Amino acid sequence: AKYPLVTTVIAPHAPYTVGTGGLKIVKEVADELAVPVHIHLHETAFECEEWEKHNSERPIQTLNKLGLLNDKLLAVHYTQATDEEIKLLADTKTNVIHCPESNMKLASGICPISKLVASGVNVAVGTDGTASNNDLDMFGEIRSAAFLAKVSSGDAEVIPASKALYMATMGGAKALGLDKVCGSLTPGKAADIQAVQFDELETSPMFSCTSHLVYCTGRQQVTDVWVAGKQLLKARKLTTLDESKLLAKAKGWGEKISAAAST
Quick one: how far is CA 18 from the chain centroid? Predict the structure, then answer.
């Protein structure tokens, strides 16, 4: 393949923006190409209520009837869940992508990941887009996922650091169907590695590497990154991209967007 690191999914935005007809086409194309489907599902109560008002069923029920609930579906957000729906997600092996900071910023609700995990649903961690997340810091997202699960369930023992880290690594790889390729440092898998600096005041002393990664680490502590064995970040400097050009381009687009917004 020309781009061996690139994989694709079918990504309709959400049931309420695509409609039942569009979802049928999504199912046909996904089956034909044998690729996963990524969709925002049950992100808000309003979305579910409106769909049910016009379709006499909740969005997940429509997707189930269309055959879209399976181990190739990435259901993003899922803040609105009943016990029956959680069982359905588990029975169909549907993946749930938890985006806690986006859900908090937009007051969308809280994905019940402790119940999902207890029921055997594969849960991964995501950020959503910059408009509703802003910093796209996966370390912050992992920490928020762990904390939000605890405070929302009233149980400090749910989603321990090890599980939160799993959701952000193997959980994500499994959701994308790439768990045989990446997600863990295992012989035969891609050498995807991050080096994190812990010998600083704010991270000293360290008693548990896993706990530190989940509760104490931010992206600013990542010093080096390798993807499939190729080093892309060295001593916090990009090795394949010109940082000054990227900053100039970002500034230019920021000015264009600001100008457009003010007209």
Answer: 21
CA atoms of 176 and 156, how far apart (whole Å): 29
Instruction: Give the pTM.
Output: 0.95
Backbone φ and ψ of 165, nearest 5°: -65, -40
Long-range contacts made by residues 12-17, C-beta under 8 angstroms, separation at least 24?
12/37, 12/39, 13/39, 13/40, 14/39, 14/40, 14/41, 14/43, 14/47, 14/59, 15/39, 15/41, 15/47, 15/51, 15/59, 15/62, 15/63, 16/47, 16/50, 16/51, 16/59
Each residue's pLDDT tens digit, 87-102 = 999 999 999 999 999 9
Q: Strand 222-227 to strand 193-196: parallel, antiparallel, or no bridges (unpaired)?
A: antiparallel
